[in-house]
Amino acid sequence: MRLRIKIILFTFLALFLLKAGEADSFTGSVPSHNIRIEFDLKNHTVEVVDRLIINAVDKNEIKFSIHKNVSIRKISETGGMDLHYFIRDGKEKKDVTVVHLPVNKSVIEMDIHYTGRFPDLPGDIKFSREFLSDKPVAYAGEEIILLDGSACWYPCMGRFTTFHVTTVTPTACETVMEGTRVSREERNGVTTTSWDFPHPVEDIYLAGGKYIVNEDTYNNISIYTYFFPEDTGLSQGYMDYSKKYLELYESLFGRYPFSKFAVVENILPTGFGMPSYTLLGQTVLRLPFMVKTSLGHEIAHNWWGNYVYPDYRKGNWSEGLTTYTADYLYDEMEGKGASYRNQLLRDYTNYTYYSNEYPLTRFVRRENPADRAIGYGKGAFVFHMLRQMLGDEVFYKGLRGIIADRGFKVASWDDFRITFEKVSGKDLKWFFRQWVEGAGAPQITVGDLKVIPDSTPVSHPEYIAGSQNMHGQEIPKPVRDDKNNDPKSGYVIKAEILQKGVPFEIYLTVSVETERGSILSSHWVRGSSNTVEIRVPSRPVSITLDPNYDVFRRLSQEEIPATMGRFAGGNEKVVVVPPHSGKDLAEAYSRAASILGGSLKIDTPLLPSSIKTGEDTVSINDKVYDRNDSVLAVTLESPYNKDAVVVFLAGNKGEDIVSVADRLVHYGKYSYLLFLKGENVVKGIWEAGKLRRDIHEN
Ligand SMILES: [Zn+2]
Q: Do 132 and 17 lie in a common domain?
């Protein structure tokens, strides 16, 4: 799951209110809030005074949005007269009203007194890897406080602000916010806590609850967990992993930009990342993989997104970069980089097509699997290809350069280009134009193949004929196996590389499998047809394009196994079910088909030999299960339609079948699944082929 949606939500409001370029200049003109908020949690009410200082009023009017459940008592100039204001309904958002305040000076300090009532806790928030709920929450109750800046619980002006907030709560309740906890005091059953964030931030999120707070430090950074009593057992694990991630990222990116990092538990199944803390739902917090990937993802966001802010109007790069330096990097460190990249390409190939494609400059946030495939997947790949091209040292130098220049400021893809050009001394305009400003991805295949015996010795072991340097780039040295180099029995392979559609310029690795081992070489390829020449020392057997998935591209059919994701992304969806009897089953199957968005077909397709269905049993990989309690879902290459995938769905109980159909959307990467009494017990992926052609000597 990829978290962070909060900042992005705010942007929609911000887009209407921001003047172009405003976010770029923070020089002294950032408004500051000094808020004191007192909670009456039984009655869901708050009593607030916000001392708001605006240094550069640029019209005769100050305008801010505020939650519709807020009533303003008065607005006065600090130590002076009451100010007049009028209120209008918000045009862009129906949950806010807009307060207009005529003024005649450019610097103003005022006190806004208001009360608010926040009794509505949404009950239907769904959280999953694929789909996110996005309604900003404003709630204050005894079980939890969730005041999302996007809901405008304080006067929000759609621009960056600094803040100092003092919360007054019953002692059982602890609050947590962005930035540093500067004081905390308990007196007469009341806890007063102050939080300080002296840097420009996009919005302010206040969370609170009956937490047990644990604290530790790493390298002068305070690490907190704010967990409910029943989950304090998880605290140590979160602390330990947080330290590991901080250590990793300080070594890659430099000093952590905040004084603390806190993991805060939520009763809603959300996952948000705010500057210096993350808010994780209880169900999410308890998932074993949270500490292993998602926690690190959130910590990486404290450089990318929560410190260097994306310029959403020009494309949100922060999810791609965070995915690359977190989720992806962890797999790469375990030697599983190629398989992660393959998964990204699979998602992209399955979920995008011509009409839902868009360039990275238009990615704002993820709402569906296609957004994820582009904003996260393609975004991550852009950084991978840059790193391949520039090498680790220059790549990380570039990232540190961005951090040094753009901390607490917005950065666009263009800022990345300029920084990487500076550190590498190379012109990268073509690269960003192609991969960031342009939509789509190349689709490559092998065309004509010629093999010519050639006994010329391979005199420069690192140099492979066919490599071209098109942009003055230094080509990384290809890895090759030279120990079987026998100059007397060499061959030259002339391989035509074809690109479908508008051709891309790519740096393509080609593997030639020979009788005595494989040889890798890399080639610049552009145009619809290119022929590359590869000299190998022994008889070639086959050729494989991009064997390690280093180029962002649309995979060919042979590289993608049938999966739920491929089914979901297809055009003609058919759900195949076995012959059955009874009204219940018939109804269940037809409901399942409609949930999956497909038409129903009764048939007995040929299943792979690893799956066998008997009268009372189902067996997968030789393990036998009771068929009565099971639902089997298997994706297969369609027997009816070339290039399509069908789902074969079989069960004995109507309600189980429907419930499984409902949940299959969350299993996009899998080819086959077995559910027993509603629980997933088997899941697997068919093995996929490579983009390989056999070589026959001619
Ligand atoms: Zn993220």
A: yes
* Distance (Å) from CA 377 to ligand 1 centroid: 12
Name the residue among 35, 70, 19 with its Cα closest to residue 204: 35
Q: What's the whole-model pTM score?
A: 0.83
Domain boundary among 511, 532, 554: 554
pLDDT at 667 exceeding the cut of 60: yes
What is the pLDDT averaged over residues 670-676? 95
CA of 581 to the centre of ligand 1 (A): 47
| Gap between the Cα atoms of 615 and 630, Å rounded | 12
3 Cα to the center of ligand 1, angstroms: 5
- Among 88-102, 200-214, 435-449, 468-482, the minimum mean pLDDT is found in 468-482
323 Cα: distance to centroid of ligand 1 (angstroms)? 7
What spacing in Å lies between the alpha carbon of 460 and ligand 1's midpoint? 45
Taking residues 6-13, what's their average pLDDT? 34
What does DSSP say about strands 277-281 and 260-266: parallel, antiparallel, or unpaired? Answer: parallel
Asked whether residue 39 falls in the same domain as residue 133, the answer is yes
Q: How far is the CA of 449 from the centre of ligand 1 (A)?
A: 43
* pLDDT, tens digit (0-9, with 9 covering 90-100), for 597-608: 999 999 998 899
Beta-strand ranges (E) seen in 355-415 are 409-411
Which domain, by its residues, includes 533?
Answer: 444-554
Distance 320 CA to ligand 1 centre (A): 8
How far are the Cα atoms of 65, 324, 458, 614, 656 from residue 160, in angstroms, in the given order? 14, 27, 61, 64, 50
> Which residues surround the ion ligand 1 when the cut-off is CB under 5 Å?
2, 4, 319, 322
* Ligand 1 centroid to residue 524 C-alpha, Å: 33
- How many domains, in total, are found in the chain? 4
CA dist 475 to 62, 78, 523, Å? 56, 63, 9
In a domain, 649, yes or no: yes
Quick one: 191 and 47 in the same domain? yes
Domain stop point among 435, 465, 500: 435
Q: For residue range 32-84, what is the model confidence (pLDDT) as tens digits?
A: 999 999 999 999 999 999 999 998 777 788 999 999 999 999 999 999 899 99
State the sign of the Cα–Cα–Cα–Cα dihedral 580, 586, 592, 598: positive
Query: Mind listing the pLDDT tens digit for each residue in 538-548?
Result: 899 999 999 99
Q: What separation in Å is there between the alpha carbon of 334 and the centre of ligand 1?
A: 21
CA of 242 to the centre of ligand 1 (A): 16
Looking at residue 383, its amino acid is F
**CB-CB contact of 138 with 70 (8 Å):** no
Whether the CB-CB separation of 280 and 243 falls below 8 Å is answered with: no
Question: How would you write 399-439 as a 3-class SS string?
Answer: HHHHHHHHCCEEECHHHHHHHHHHHHCCCCHHHHHHHHHCC
Do 52 and 185 reside in the same domain of the chain? yes
Tens of pLDDT, residues 178-198? 999 999 999 999 999 999 999
Q: Is the pLDDT of residue 342 over 60?
A: yes
User: Across 17-26, 281-290, 293-302, which has the greatest mean pLDDT?
Assistant: 293-302
How much is the pLDDT for 581? 86
Longest dimension (CA), the chain: 96
Q: How confident is the model at residue 251 (pLDDT cuts 50, 70, 90)?
A: very high
C-alpha 2 – ligand 1 centre gap (Å):
5
